[in-house]
């Protein structure tokens, strides 16, 4: 992380919290958002992510702690005195002004007379130069969203805050806008802090993601690291899908743990286990559905040595184009999910078939078995009031 003395665009939250009566929306947290990064606060409804964003913006007063933007303590400053701008899901464009005047609004309010060059550059940045004289209602949702971003960026904030900005768009447009926002952020180099409940959105755009749960940061890291190395069942389930096998540490072999799960033996790299590693300890062995291969029981002899393997029976299968998603019932784990790419489909892999699931032991991660296996699994669509 860069230090605030070197850069003016760092966001540093120190011991910041928010309580409403007896309810704690955000437990004391420390968070540093590096200068020029695209940072996402990700979590389900009510996890405290929007409250955290609003405390950075000055729209919510912290119950404790401080907010620094660069080396400036802004905790006591009102929103309009902070070098930040916020883009909301509703866009809040002025319907009676055309696009040019919507973007120019902040400059004119500051008494700047000559706005044409700056507004033109900003509309070009968001690829709306041709639309300058249209009214907001004449634009699509994605275009209105880009106008809102341009209006915020023209004030040259040190930090742009985005509160569920793509929530009102349909899926295809949302995916286009994810790439568009990332491009804009890369071009302007301003720190973006983005609140979302959409895992794909956070992982597509952000350099760093803070997964929030119950007013706390559950895990912080690069998207790929969070996905491959979840430290809790909540993160493992919230970012994609995970299979968990309840197991016991039977022995240690070099850099690996040997696990016993029913009548199966599994190998887990010790470095990938955040749970206990002593012999006899209970752990959850996790593996992602796309890391697993599925072989019909008749061909079990062809599976290479050294792979983790469990047996089961196909309970259900769904063809979804890119892949086929299987649900396997196994003594080691109920409703084991496997995603197989549709390259060479085995016609025998239908419900009722006996199969062997196998994978590279390096793709196994281990968590403390005291955790709730279902935590984070219900990814419910939310409103933007989290």
What order do the helices and strands come in, and which of them pair?
Layout: E1 11-20, E2 23-33, E3 38-42, H1 49-57, E4 64-69, E5 72-73, E6 84-88, H2 99-109, H3 116-125, H4 141-153, E7 159-163, H5 171-188, E8 191-196, H6 199-205, E9 208-213, E10 216-221, H7 223-228, H8 233-238, E11 243-253, E12 256-261, E13 264-269, E14 282-287, E15 293-296, E16 308-319, E17 323-330, E18 333-341, E19 354-359, E20 365-368
Parallel strand pairs: 3-8, 3-9, 6-7, 7-8
Antiparallel strand pairs: 1-2, 1-4, 4-5, 9-10, 11-12, 11-14, 12-13, 14-20, 15-19, 16-17, 16-19, 17-18
Q: What does this 3D model show about the protein?
A:
This protein has 386 residues and is α+β, with helices and mostly antiparallel strands. The chain has 2 domains: 11-233, 3-Layer(aba) Sandwich (Rossmann fold); 241-368, RNA polymerase II/Efflux pump adaptor protein, barrel-sandwich hybrid domain (OB fold (Dihydrolipoamide Acetyltransferase, E2P), Beta Barrel). Helices cover 21% and strands 35% of the residues. The chain contains 8 helices and 20 strands. The chain has helices spanning 49-57, 99-109, 116-125, 141-153, 171-188, 199-205, 223-228, 233-238; strands at residues 11-20, 23-33, 38-42, 64-69, 72-73, 84-88, 159-163, 191-196, 208-213, 216-221, 243-253, 256-261, 264-269, 282-287, 293-296, 308-319, 323-330, 333-341, 354-359, 365-368. It has a 6-stranded mixed sheet with strand order 6-7-8-3-9-10, with helices on both faces. A 5-stranded antiparallel sheet has the order 13-12-11-14-20, with no helix packed on it. A hairpin with a 2-residue loop joins strand 17 (323-330) and strand 18. Helix 2 packs parallel to helix 4 (141-153). The relative contact order is 0.13.
């Amino acid at each position: 992380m860069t230090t605030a003395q070197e850069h003016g665009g760092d966001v540093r939250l120190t011991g910041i919290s928010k309580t409403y009566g007896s309810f704690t929306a955000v437990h004391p947290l420390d968070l540093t958002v590096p200068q020029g990064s695209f940072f996402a606060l990700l979590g389900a409804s009510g996890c405290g992510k929007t409250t955290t964003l609003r405390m950075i913006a000055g729209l919510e007063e912290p119950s404790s702690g401080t907010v620094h933007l660069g080396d400036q303590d802004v905790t006591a400053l009102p929103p309009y005195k902070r070098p930040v701008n916020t883009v909301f899901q509703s866009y809040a464009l002025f319907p009676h002004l055309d696009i040019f005047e919507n973007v120019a609004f902040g400059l004119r309010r500051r008494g700047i007379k000559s706005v044409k060059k700056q507004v033109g550059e900003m509309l070009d940045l968001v690829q709306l130069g041709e639309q300058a004289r249209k009214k907001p209602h004449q634009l699509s949702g994605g275009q209105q969203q880009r106008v809102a971003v341009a209006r915020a960026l023209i004030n040259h904030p040190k930090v742009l805050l985005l509160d569920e900005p793509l929530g009102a768009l349909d899926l295809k447009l949302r995916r286009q806008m994810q790439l568009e926002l990332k491009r804009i952020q890369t071009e302007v180099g301003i720190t973006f802090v983005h609140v979302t409940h959409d895992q794909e959105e956070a992982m597509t755009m952000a350099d760093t993601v803070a997964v929030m749960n119950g007013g706390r940061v559950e895990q912080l890291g690069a998207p790929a690291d969070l996905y491959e190395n979840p430290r809790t069942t909540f993160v493992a389930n919230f970012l994609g899908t995970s299979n968990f096998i309840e197991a016991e540490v039977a022995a240690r072999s070099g850099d690996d743990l040997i696990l016993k799960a029913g009548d199966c033996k599994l190998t887990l790299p010790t470095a990938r286990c955040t749970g206990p590693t002593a012999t006899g300890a209970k752990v959850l062995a996790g593996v992602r559905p796309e890391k697993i291969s599925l072989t019909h029981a008749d061909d079990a002899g062809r599976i290479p040595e050294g792979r983790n393997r469990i047996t089961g029976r196909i309970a259900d299968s769904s063809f979804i184009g890119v892949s086929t998603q299987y649900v396997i019932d196994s003594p080691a784990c109920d409703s084991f999910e496997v995603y197989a790419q549709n390259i060479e489909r085995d016609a025998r892999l239908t419900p009722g078939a006996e199969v062997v699931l196998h994978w590279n032991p390096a793709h196994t991660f281990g968590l403390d078995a005291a955790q709730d296996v279902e935590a984070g699994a219900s990814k419910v669509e939310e409103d933007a009031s989290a």
